[in-house]
């Protein structure tokens, strides 16, 4: 994969990442691009100095879905969600959350991404300091709607 960026002086640069395998999908946010297949996710982002960088995460399973928000991306399957964001120090960071079970849906708004099924909801958000956090809430059962606010 080839990531292109312009540094603080406006000079264009390419940064390559060996991704191997086949069947890659992509998703982007305002701050990063993720290329992923059934085994690995590769996030391209700019650090605080404006330099391009790659951050790799093993996601080793099948059947991934992806959703993005303003500053983050979540890739999930029936057991784990992986959130990517650029933290306040300018470092690309992956945070994994066990989500268990099946039948997940997702929604995004602002800096929040929610992944849920009939029994539990998980929200990933980035605070004003650039810290990413997962929070979990048990749900009472089926037939619920999710509404988010900024």
Keywords:
150 residues; four-stranded antiparallel beta sheet; mainly beta
What can you see in these coordinates?
The structure is a single chain. The protein has 150 residues and is mainly β. 0% of the residues lie in helices and 53% in strands. It is built from no helices and 14 strands. It has strands at 2-6, 12-16, 25-28, 32-36, 40-46, 52-58, 65-68, 72-76, 80-86, 92-98, 105-109, 112-116, 120-126, 132-138. The strands form four sheets. Strands 3-4-5-6 form a four-stranded antiparallel beta sheet, with no helix packed on it. A four-stranded antiparallel beta sheet has the order 7-8-9-10, with no helix packed on it. It has a four-stranded antiparallel beta sheet with strand order 11-12-13-14, with no helix packed on it. The protein is globular. The N and C termini lie far apart (34 Å).
């Amino acid at each position: 994969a080839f990531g292109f960026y312009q540094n603080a002086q406006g000079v264009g640069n390419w940064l390559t990442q060996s991704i191997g395998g086949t069947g890659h999908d992509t998703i982007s946010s305002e701050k990063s691009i993720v290329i992923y297949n059934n085994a690995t996710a590769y996030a391209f982002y700019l650090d605080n100095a404006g330099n391009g960088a790659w951050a790799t995460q093993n996601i080793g399973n099948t059947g991934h879905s992806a959703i993005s928000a303003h500053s983050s991306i979540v890739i999930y399957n029936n057991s784990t969600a992986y959130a990517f964001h650029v933290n306040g120090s300018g470092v690309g960071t992956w945070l994994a959350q066990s989500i268990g079970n099946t039948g997940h849906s997702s929604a995004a708004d602002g800096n929040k991404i929610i992944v849920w099924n009939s029994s539990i909801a998980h929200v990933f958000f980035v605070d004003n300091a650039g810290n990413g956090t997962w929070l979990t809430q048990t749900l009472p059962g089926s037939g619920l709607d999710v509404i988010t606010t900024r």
